[in-house]
Every structure is written in C-alpha cells, then in structure tokens.
Amino acid sequence: MEILSQIYIGTQIPKREELLVAIDEYIKYYNTTRIVSKIKMSPIDYRNRVLNNI
Q1: Which of 6, 14, 28, 33 could cross-link 18 (Cys pair, CB 3.0–4.6 Å)?
Q2: Using CA atoms, how far apart are residues 53 and 28, in angstroms rounded to an integer?
Q3: Dihedral pair phi/psi, residue 37, rounded to 5°
Q4: Separation CA 32–CA 43 (nearest Å)
Q5: 4-52, pLDDT tens digit by residue?
C-alpha cells in the first residue's frame, strides 16, 4: 500500500481504471525518472552507463 500513499496522500482513491493508470505512471517514473540519491542518477541512466562500460 506504500505506492498508494505516495500517489494519493490526502486525496480520495479514484475508480479502478484511474488507479491502474496512476500506478502505471508511478512505476514508469520510479524506474526511469526518479533520481536515486546514492548514485545521483535515475535507474535507467545507471543501467545504460553500466551496459555501455561492458
């Protein structure tokens, strides 16, 4: 339920379809855009950097 609290803090949970879209958008953000403080880059940027160095 942590993902729901991060998406919908202080708001009412929407219909099922809206919830699925919001979860999908959050997963895309989490895996591609979010900056990981330990490595100071997004997970996708880190993955690409590692793969380019092989």
Answers
A1: 14
A2: 24
A3: -65, -35
A4: 6
A5: 666 666 667 678 888 888 889 989 999 899 999 999 999 999 999 999 9
- Residue 32, C-beta contacts closer than 8 angstroms, at least 6 positions apart: 42, 43, 44
Q: Name, in order, each residue with C-beta under 8 angstroms of 43's C-beta and a sequence gap of 6 or more.
A: 30, 31, 32, 34, 36
- Ranges of each domain in the chain: 15-52
pTM score, whole prediction: 0.64
Q: At a CB cut-off of 8 Å and minimum separation 6, what does 36 contact?
A: 42, 43, 46
The Cα–Cα gap between 34 and 42 comes to 5
